[in-house]
Write a structure and sequence with these properties.
This protein is mostly helical. Helices cover 83% and strands 0% of the residues. The protein has 18 helices and no strands. It has helices at 7-26, 28-34, 39-66, 72-92, 97-127, 134-158, 163-185, 192-197, 201-207, 209-229, 232-238, 243-262, 264-268, 273-293, 297-303, 308-325, 331-359, 362-386. Helix 1 packs antiparallel against helix 7 (163-185), helix 11 packs across helix 12 (243-262) and helix 14 (273-293) runs antiparallel to helix 16 (308-325). It starts with 6 loop residues before the first helix and ends with a helix. The relative contact order is 0.15.
Length: 387
């Protein structure tokens, strides 16, 4: 078998997913406020949607590792059909808040879960000895995210918030095209040996406790990370800025990520992935410290210079690191858990950070975030040394 290059199909998968994620998760507040939801309902919906995705993703990963009938390329069309149905439902019931709430929770759950399949596809590609550049694909996914974010904001301003579920439906079609191209390009490979060696999720966690402890540290890091990125307008206003400046900072943050993702393979691909990942954990805390010390808009821009060696470096390193540490028989579970922990950090931030910003001065919230980040870094790095 020739060493087929799967980079382009995988780029399409990553691009389509992060565009969908942008629409579903990042524009949820705009859509739901537009149809009359309160901030309280928004918080509950976001937490439920992410929690549902956190439960569904690892469950699917567990099944994919142990049953070939649940292979990601076989499973994806069913998940995309369900996702499309939720988007159609949102278009039809926009005047009914109860049904809109239900459909959006399901939309978010299916959207978040698709990434579990995409990560498993990468594991299958690597296990089969095929070529792909994960960091390049992930970087183009982030670039696609930025483009959709800018375009959809303009479209909503010119039309209505119904552009959110409509865009979700169109992007589901794009995801289906990416799936079809990948399926046709992927050679027929059987993984009987790996399937027989795979263990249930509970046994996997018990047998890989050190790895799981590292993921707990990651959840703390992403809790602190989302306390800033998810509530950036509060931080910006505290520094004397406004909504426009928050938008500029968001764009600057995204630009800082791209070089690390695009050139990860060339710059860090031959290095010890454990050391690269540990470095990203340390830079998360350095970034949080800079935000806690920043008292001006210039300080915020300087703080986001560390977005690249923290978040972007982590995003590019975590998948090959997990692939290196965990055998293919349990790759789906391991990759899904790693992604789930970042989602858990986001959920915890949604639950607690808003309240913290309501009752405490912004600088104090930032110092709390720094303290949590340091704890996460210490837990994650120390657990890697024990592996």
């Amino acid at each position: 078998m020739t060493k087929r290059d799967m980079t382009l199909p995988y780029i399409l998968l990553q691009s389509s997913y992060w565009m969908q994620f942008c629409v579903c998760v990042c524009f949820a507040i705009i859509y739901l406020q537009g149809i009359g939801f309160t901030n309280t309902k928004l918080g509950i919906l976001s937490a439920l949607g992410n929690l549902a995705g956190m439960l569904l993703g690892p469950y699917l990963a567990d099944q994919m590792d142990r049953d070939e009938r649940w292979a990601p390329l076989k499973l994806m069309p069913y998940l995309l059909i369900l996702q499309a149905l939720t988007c159609v439902g949102l278009l039809l019931v926009s005047k009914d808040q109860t049904l809109s709430f239900l459909f959006y929770v399901l939309y978010m759950a299916f959207c978040v879960s698709v990434n579990t399949l995409i990560l498993k596809i990468y594991s299958d590609i690597s296990y089969a000895g095929l070529k792909t550049d994960y960091s390049l694909a992930r970087g183009l996914g982030s670039l696609s995210f930025v483009i959709v974010s800018a375009l959809l904001g303009v479209l909503i301003e010119k039309t209505s918030v119904l552009m959110v579920p409509l865009s979700g439906l169109l992007l589901t079609a794009y995801e289906a095209c990416a799936w079809l191209i990948t399926k046709r390009r992927m050679p027929q490979i059987r993984f009987e040996a790996a399937l027989k060696e795979s263990v249930p999720m509970s046994s996997f966690i018990r047998d890989n406790r050190v790895f799981f402890v590292m993921l707990v540290g990651t959840a703390l890091l992403f809790f602190a990370h989302n306390n800033i990125t998810g509530f950036l307008i509060n931080v910006v206003r505290n520094a004397g800025g406004d909504t426009k400046m928050a938008g500029f900072l968001n764009s600057f943050m995204a630009v800082m990520e791209l070089p690390f993702m695009f050139f990860y393979t060339k710059l860090f691909g031959k290095m010890d992935q454990k050391k690269v990942l540990a470095s990203s954990f340390i830079f998360f805390s350095i970034k949080e410290l800079c935000f806690a010390l920043a008292g001006s808009l210039t300080g915020l821009y300087l703080s986001f210079l560390f977005q690249g060696p923290s978040f972007a470096l982590y995003s590019a390193a975590i998948v090959p690191y997990v692939e290196m540490m965990i055998g293919h028989q349990d790759a789906g579970k391991a990759q899904s858990l790693a992604y789930t922990m970042t989602t858990l950090g986001s959920v915890l931030s949604s639950i607690f950070a808003g309240r913290l910003y309501d009752i405490l001065p912004v600088p104090m919230v930032l110092w709390i975030s720094f303290a949590v980040s340091v704890a996460g870094t210490l837990i994650a790095v120390s657990s890697m040394k024990r592996k």
